[in-house]
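Quick board copy: two proteins, each given as sequence then tokens.
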Amino acid sequence: MRFGILYEIHTPKPWHENSDYERYWQVIEEIKTAEAVGFDNVWAVEHHFTEEFAHSSAPEVFLAAVAQHTTTMRIGHGVTLLPKQYNHALRVVERTAALDILSHGRLDVGTGRSATALELRAFEIDPEDTRPMWEEAIQIIPRYWTQERVAWEGKYYKIPKRTVLPRPYQKPHPPLWMAGGQQTSVELAAKYGLGFLHFTLLDPNESWEYVELYRDKIKQAQPPAGMVTNQFAAFTVGYCGESAREVEEVGGPGALYYGNERTRVQGAWEKAYGEVPPSYRSYQDQRNKIDLTGPDGFKKLMKLESMAVGTPDQCRRVVDIFEAAGADQMILYMELPLLTPEQIHKSVRLFGEEVIQPYKAERGLAITDPAT
């Protein structure tokens, strides 16, 4: 199992004129630390207008900088949004090919349809168009990475014959992934031979059924350009502290804040649209299952075996759960709100040195394997 770290570029208030400048460069340093202690992958989200929560609105630019400050980590869009108003499919083809070249073939391209009313309304996207738009774009992208003078005729795109350049460094193309948290998403990812980014915070017993479903369905994959990724990556919150007290006093509040803020950011459908759109109702149902509010919020969090928040021994037990479930990668969100950059560095380093490195040593793996 590989280890990834995901960044929203959380930028808390109060802001000053250089808040974003400082946070971006702090994140670069945190990623360099993560690579040094054994993390294999780094992922960056695409979010718009989510004040404080995520300032990663141009991940293609950010990841290009990350590529120049790292050498072994794979870098990934986690995810680039494929509804047409966010990103035209041909622009995704062009940008990702250039990024794959500049990262010496270390790019993974995660894709998604977007999950917040805040963003969809501003980009004038009908929520019920997001899935078919994504599905059309995911068929376009690998074709234009690999073929010359391709034409496409669909519902959302009518593209005359064109050759898109440059071509990606990886052959036949960078690994493609899909993010999601419901059964339909798992089945779609498998249908097109995509890796699956499981970005839902749930009890493992409710999540790992998806691994089995994915492994079964991907046997019948029909990838647009012939490449099957066949990787299942599972996301969770991560904080590693030296003691139980440090975990509760430092990591706990940040993990609770993130869990509740994520619920808030991905909610508000009724206010924006009058009701939750049908294709998004399962996400609402899942979020309702995770309630970390109230004075016993930390106790609730610690009972969730899917969250790697704890001492090194506690974090390692969660790693073992992910491995036993069949996950190919464990993706950690470690830039927790309320933590200083120094506290984030410490947590990342401790997780790497006390969890990842022993895990890899037991399997005869190098701490920083070349990206493959």
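And the next:
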Amino acid sequence: MGATLLTLIFPNRNPRGAREDYMPSFSEILNRPTIFLDRNVLSPHYIPETLPFREKEIEWIMNGLSPALRNERPRNMFVYGKTGTGKTCSVKHVMGKLAQHKENSNAHSCYVNCRMYNSRYRVIQKITKELLPSVDSMGFGLALLYEKMMEEVRSSGRQLIVVLDEVDMVKDLDDLLYTLTRANDELQKGSITLIGISNKLSFKEQLDPRSRSSLCENETVFAPYTATQLQAIISQRAAMGFKPNSVDESAINLAAAICASESGDARYALKLLIKAGEIADYKGASRITDKEVDEARRSVDIDVAFEAISTLPDHQQLVLLSIANLALDKGKNTRLTTGKPEEEDSFLTSGEVYEEYCKNSRRHRKPRRSARWYREYLNELEMLGLITTIESGHGMRGRTRLIRIGYPPSDVKKIIEQNLSIIESA
């Protein structure tokens, strides 16, 4: 099922007239003409020397961390904003600048991807391994790992900066934040500073008040890129990643317009660009045009949806599954249309989605959450672009939230049912 959803959509399965049963060798594939110059620079993970339109944010991070170069402890920082707004790139960019001064300071940074290291134990294990590469931390308990980390910071006098990317993914987050922020009370030399990065604008509200006050000493929000900014970013990467004159300016403009209309997500823009290049190569074309960008959009949308949905917590997946089920079930439920019969998109009421969510919670043996948490889940699903919501207008009894799914409900349903079956069988 997953393979079907993630398959790249190619318009022509046999562009060069080869036999259907013909299988090329790697040498033949590598010798084919390509419009790519350097695919790596088109990756969302590539950190360019200059990050357009993030100069102020980068300066803010540098100012916040500069005390570490004077052997003083910086204050904790919190960076948040929607996916693809340059948060991680900007922080890593500053980490690179900080590393250039390592010979003249005790500043040291440790980057932790909290999707991978999603518990207090795993995060501290990662930090300890970063500080002491020769130590095999496998099998060590939390207390012993903590002591080894503290002893290294204390004995070396390090100003340790721990970057917790997607910090909201840590299951026992309050415990982790309490452990790392209170660690400084035990240090006579050296310090531990945290930089939390989150895509969720409402993330802070879920923290314990003590954790919130300690982590969010300094905070900033990364705003989504505008269409003009995305156009400049795509042009910069296209010039570095593709051969000269191989990308139409109109294709760059179209990619920027698509991404700006979605969410201002630069990562989406780069995925769109590299997929369009792959399609052009597959067809044997020498240029990326509007057609390749449009074809790439369908494939990228599926990839992005799969990635976003697969990493959602269980209850958010259940809410989204409920929306998908109701969207597919046109006969049973009262649906509110946009007023345009030719459009298939329609809205569901918040109440009927919550009822369906309660049913799905029982079906999958999960204790249902309260209406308050349900509203938070809707906010987070909307922030990820998985749903759209509006407030009802006149003509309805009272006011309610109207919900529309953002991707084909059949695809969403398949992804979630596969994820939940894997989780429940584990």
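Board note added afterward: The longest helix spans residues 290-310.
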